[in-house]
Amino acid sequence: MNSRKRGSTLFLVVIIAAALSIGAYSVLDLVNTEFRLNKRAAIYNEARQAAESLIQSSIVDLKGRLENETAFPIDALSPSKNPLYISSEFVGVYSDSVNLSYLVIPSKTKYTSESEFNTQPTEIIGGQVPPGEWRYIDPRIPGNQFDELAGTRVYERNIEIISKATVTREQVGTAVAYARQYLQVRDAPLFAYAIFYNLPMEIAPGPQMEVFGNVHSNLDSWFQASSSLDIHSKVTIAGDMNHGRHPDSGKSNSGGAVKIANSSGTLVSLQDSEGWMTSGAEDFYDRSNQAYGGNLQTADHGVLPQNPVGVNDYIEDTNSSTSAKESFNSAYTLIQPPLSEADLQIPDASADPEGYAEALVLNEVEKQKYSYKAGLTIKVDNSGNLSFVSYQRAADGTLTYDGAGNPITELLTPNPTQPIATYHPFTEQSGTITSGLHDKRQAEDLNTIEIDVEALKDLIHGNDSAEWGGLPEHQPSEWWNGIVYVDFPQDGSHGSRDDNVNPAISGWAVKLTDAKVIPNPSFAHADDLYGMTLATNQMLYIKGHYNADGDRSTGSATEPDSAGDFAQQDREAPAALVADSITFLSQNWSDAKSNKSSKYRNATHTEISAAILTGNVPSGKSGSNSYSGGVENFPRFLEKWKSKDLLMRGSVVALFESEVGVRRFGHSDVYSAPNRKWGFHSKFGEGYLPPGTLNTRRYRAVDFEMLDKTTYEEYVERIKSNY
Predict the structure, then answer these.
(1) pLDDT tens-digit profile of 192-211?
(2) Which of 251, 321, 353, 489 has the highest Cβ tally under 10 A?
């Protein structure tokens, strides 16, 4: 009996042990399966992350290349040109034993032929650079309201990038991940803004001021008003938003209303129940988003500086205790004369990598200079002698150089019976100025080069080679491109500056007269070229109405006088004025009275239709108690404007410090302010821009996706066939 019981118990134990063994085996098998699946998932995740990282590192590389490129060849990323490649830094990270990476490092990290595409286990391939197209970033479309370029037209290119990454681990297997993303390159014209500041921006109007059009600043900005300031569009600041005055202005704060339109177009006060809505204030990010719906963005929102392609950031001279030039004013080079071929030489990259990189940037900036792009150049020598030339160019539009390394020019001789430009040396007799003019702000007597814009228009529109020298190549249709540059000798006494600035000689100025109608020849319209940009490396003075009829009953701060057809020669056309400093003089201006008290310098109503790109003297530049004048005083004046209007439609761009007109704002007996009726030119917003308009460049990585093997191979074949 007991034996049977013991046998039954033993049998039961065996069964239980077997069951436990089977259970344990099943658990172990399940654990092993889960372990293998986890390992396979881990290596796929590593492959996916590597594929993403390849694209991101290539985007960084590509942005660095495009930052200094003005031309975009469609096959720029082909193996025969400058393809994307796997960097040594990337290889170093993924082959470092400390990181325990199982990524298969390819034997070839840079392809030299399209036939090599998809032959390596890990690779990066760049697609074509498309021609691009203009696109309006509509702020009303969901998702666009927080785009810092919302409300502007941009020239957009989407560059395709695809990648493959292979990870192999012993006893686990191999995983391959495929990815694609686009680098979106967006060029926004500088004149797409009502106000664009590359310097610290200050707006502090006394009387009511209204701004129509987008406002952008690359640095900290200060907003205030004695009465009120209403900004009816988007404000983006690549620094801090402040209420009050710049700390070096020496001016007191005012508490007038400051309002900015929200995304629905309703003006909203910058001051709410919690105080002024400025950077550093509690919950500024959330409060500003709630109040403005993306229409007020600062560095806190990710806004970055916008610079013309190749131009370095402006660096403010913050040490007012010294007279040393400590600012970095590189954008100023855009208004300087062309460099010699020797100055543009590119050293060997292996022998001088830093010099090589700097030379590449210098060459790209050179091509953006107004002097380089000009179809007509008026050269002025130290004695006031004038010559008119057009630069000879290669088939790709680049300048050609003679044996001495100087740009080769074609001499033009405009008909002397209708003089375009005349020299007026400063002359004073018995206290009365008989030639030249006196600038009360500069406290300086000036020799002037006076340009008769009407005479220039007539000779350009005539398109007669006989009026310009007689040879076929002298015919305006052979060289006119809408850009006129007045070239003054450079001072040369500033030494070699890191920012490459070499300003024009002092004591001179350009003065424009008879400019109601500017050149807008019909022969240029087939190339979508309308109007004129006049640029100089000197101070610029404009007498009377410019590109506008001066009729007060029809004048608008935003709309052109004529209803819209730029193709008519004698209608208002896109225009820009570019100079070291710009001073507006009314039709009532008299050079002879320019050295007299302001009571003898009384202005009349004046109308301007032009973008202005010029310099300023920043607050603190002349000591801790010197005000820049703010946006409201950015254009300069020399008359008593009390109760008179300056109506100006266009775009206001403060791109650099003035280097010739350097006397600060705020001296007595210079002027009294006009009624400011300023706005953004509606046609600029439609894409009708002055010739040679500079662009800023921004980037976005968009449309990331993981691909399957079949789709990836299809993309590879498409890219390969396009090259």
Answers:
(1) 999 999 999 999 998 889 89
(2) 251
